[in-house]
Automatic annotation (TrEMBL):
Pfam families: YtxH
Keyword DNA damage on entry: no
Protein name (Swiss-Prot/TrEMBL): YtxH domain-containing protein
Bias-annotated ranges (Basic and acidic residues): 114-132
Keywords, in A-Z order: Signal
Residue ranges, annotated region (Disordered): 114-151
Cross-referenced InterPro entries: Desiccation-related_membrane, YtxH
Source organism of the structure: Planococcus salinus
Signal peptide start-end: 1-18
Keyword Signal appears in the UniProt entry: yes
Lineage: Bacteria, Bacillati, Bacillota, Bacilli, Bacillales
Amino acid sequence: MKASTFFLGLTTGLAAGAAATLFSTPQSGKELRTSMKTASSDWKEKLADVKEKIDNLKESVSELTTEAKEQLPETMDELKKSLEKWQEETAPAKEHLQLEILAIQNSMEALEKAISKNKKKDDEQEQEKKSYIEYSDTDDDSDKDSDKESK
């Protein structure tokens, strides 16, 4: 479809619509024009108001962005200083906790060694008891055998 054909159809449609509106309106032509001028004026005022509000919004966003850019470095510096101060204040407690943890670990290792030694001793004693019991059982059996032989 060519552009000239499209615009010709559009123009014809607009003219037909305008004529139909003019002939079907209950107002006279003069009243209609006055009404249209008033409506047009109202729309222009509303459009100007919307444009003004958009401009105000753009300006507010721009100001907010500028303030944020100015305040962000200050805020970051304050945060860094606060973090450094906190680290300095907690450093002694951190060192103390690390020493306590090390002492606990050493105590646990010593306790594990002691438990291991006691377990070895207990195992050796248990083994000795078993050997003694086995030896005693063997003596009892030989006594029974000698009793049987003597009878």
